[in-house]
Amino acid sequence: EVQLVESGGVVVQPGGSLRISCAASGFTFDDHTMHWVRQAPGKGLEWVSLISWDGDSTYYADSVKGRFTISRDNSKNSLFLQMDSLRSDDSAFYYCARGDVPVQVFAPSDFWGQGTLVTVSS
Amino acid sequence: EIVLTQSPGTLSLSPGGGATLSCRASQSVKSNYLAWYQQKPGQAPRLLIYGASNRATGIPDRFSGSGSGTDFALTISSLEPEDFAVYYCQHYGRSPFTFGPGTKVDIK
């Protein structure tokens, strides 16, 4: 069974940093592109970033480019999002999601975690 | 960046009725790389449709997708109680993989 479990969401001050994680199981992690998608409470979905199966390619939304860094450790079946220079509008649930086609960057997300809440507030 | 517009914002319908949700892109979507997701309160999104018209694994056949280029639609042929939710479209042909703002389907 495919499982994605996010962790690391906390309350952080504006301008601060935070790294959130996603532990994957039940599939061959290093075959799949992985995504971060966020959702402010009561709002819509916003795609944040993706990393290819081998870590060689990364893409970011303009709203986070230069502040957030996506990475993965295939030996530990883990996905990460390093978030720096955090702002109040970064407050959201952060979901990790799997790209559904192996070794393909351009694919929809077929499995999602339950999300971790990041709150940026003083 | 491709901007996706969904209409209507809210659709109030009765169980058993049909629904058609629209998703319009500001530019042509490469290879019809357009997906639809369903999200219920307190839950993660669920993939319904990919490639504009292909049902994802385990999705009932009352859900169908259509369209190409810049105009896409999700049709629910006969609404079941569990179908009342928010629906999002997303393109995934190039970065950024933007989502539409969503259409809420609620009970009339």
How large a portion of the residues of chain A is in β-strands, by DSSP E? over 45%
Give me the count of strands of chain A. Answer: 11
Instruction: Kindly provide the radius of gyration of chain A, computed on alpha-carbon positions and rounded to a whole number of angstroms.
Output: 13 Å
* Average pLDDT number of chain B: 96
Structural class of the secondary elements of chain A? mainly beta
Instruction: Assign a percent range to the helix content of chain A.
Output: under 10%
Number of H- or I-type helical stretches of chain B = 0
Order of helical and strand elements of chain B: EEEEEEEEEE
End-to-end distance of chain A = 40 Å
- Sheet/helix structural class of chain B: mainly beta
Shape of chain B: globular
How would you describe this protein?
The complex is a heterodimer of chains A (122) and B (108). Chain A is mostly beta strands and 122 residues long. Chain A has strands spanning 3-7, 11-12, 18-25, 34-39, 45-51, 58-60, 68-73, 78-83, 92-99, 109-112, 116-120. Chain A has no helices and eleven strands. In chain A, strands 2, 4, 5, 6, 9, 10 and 11 form a seven-stranded mixed β-sheet that branches. Chain A has a four-stranded antiparallel β-sheet with strand order 1-3-8-7, with no helix packed on it. In chain A, strand 5 and strand 6 form a beta hairpin. Chain B is an all-beta fold. Helices cover 0% and strands 47% of the residues of chain B. Chain B is built from no helices and ten strands. Chain B starts with a strand and ends with a strand. The chains are: A mainly beta (122), B mainly beta (108). Chains A and B meet through strand 5 and strand 10 of A and strand 4 and strand 5 of B.
